[in-house]
Design brief:
The protein is an all-alpha fold. It has 7 helices and no strands.
Length: 184
């Protein structure tokens, strides 16, 4: 996977700004919701937390702050032809439980944001329909408490699957809608 030109803000920066805005979701779940919103064709706007959390009273992030940068970088990464899209998850130094829990939180957020933006019956390819079903299964999964090297490898594979699934859904919905608009 190529290294993006503009990396995501640090998980700790997103958590700090989320807490300052009294958002009641983890940084990974919030990033998943943003990415689901963008993949579903939602608007790339600075007031995105109010949109993805379906709460008009949610404060708009400060221009240039961690949440604003998260939106800008995520939007650019999702549209990147080099597939440099990243998930905002804890690093390798975190426990397997923390990392798997954050991945499943990310999936829950993605499903919510995607549903809000794409609606109840988006036009999806068979692959994207399967990917959405798999993301829902991951979102309903409990984090693994302990594990060995095989479990670490499995988590890495799951992260890559989720990353590619999100890009596929973005292509089927958001990019396809943009192509249709250009043709009309």
């Amino acid at each position: 996977m190529p290294v993006p030109a503009n990396p995501l803000p640090l998980l700790s920066e997103v958590e700090a700004e989320s807490q300052a805005l009294t958002l009641s979701t983890s940084a990974s779940e919030l990033h998943g919701a943003l990415c689901g919103w963008l993949a579903g064709g939602g608007a790339d706007v600075r007031e995105w937390p109010a949109k993805v959390l379906a709460d008009a009273a949610t404060a708009t992030p400060a221009a240039g702050g961690a949440l604003d940068r998260l939106r800008q970088v995520s939007s650019a990464q999702m549209g990147d032809d080099e597939f440099g899209f990243e998930l905002l998850l804890p690093g390798a130094e975190a426990s397997l439980s923390e990392r798997s829990g954050a991945l499943f939180d990310w999936c829950r957020g993605f499903l919510g944001g995607f549903g809000l933006a794409a609606g109840a019956a988006p036009n999806l390819s068979e692959e994207s329909q399967e990917a959405l079903t798999d993301l829902a299964k991951f979102a309903a999964t409990a984090p693994q408490e302990e594990g060995d090297e095989e479990d670490e490898e499995a988590l890495t594979e799951l992260e890559e699957f989720v990353r590619i699934a999100a890009l596929g859904l973005h292509g089927d919905v958001a990019l396809a809608a943009r192509r249709r608009q250009r043709l009309n």
